[in-house]
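Exam revision sheet. Question 4 asks you to relate a sequence to its structure. Input first:
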Amino acid sequence: MSADGASGSGGTARCGPELASPAGIEAQTCVMTGGGETWARAYYRNTSGAELRSVLTLMGPGGRTVELHCVLAAHDEPGSCETPRGPSAGGPGAYAAVAEYAGAGPVAPLLLRAGSDRAPGAAD
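Answer key, structure tokens:
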């Protein structure tokens, strides 16, 4: 599920840890940079057997945020969700991304939250 770069754009990916929920969702969230642009990408695998919803948020300098809603089909295939690319307003460290995964119902519990930053002191 891990990202090695920014899809051939000569850019970089700063990814948080790969996480798994007992509810059947695996995810990793990254801040992507390349070509003077920055965006967020969430990689996931939905093994829950049910359709899930995700909200991917990219947070940047000056309180700027971009939010994208994604639907995760009920199958075991890996997938990704990506915010639109925008002009970079600072280095990659000025950005953070988080993806939150929940059931598809109107009052569905949060199943997993995955961020682009590693915990302090975590090994790369």
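Marking note for examiners. The beta strands are 12-15, 19-21, 25-34, 37-46, 52-59, 65-72, 78-82, 86-87, 96-103, 110-115.
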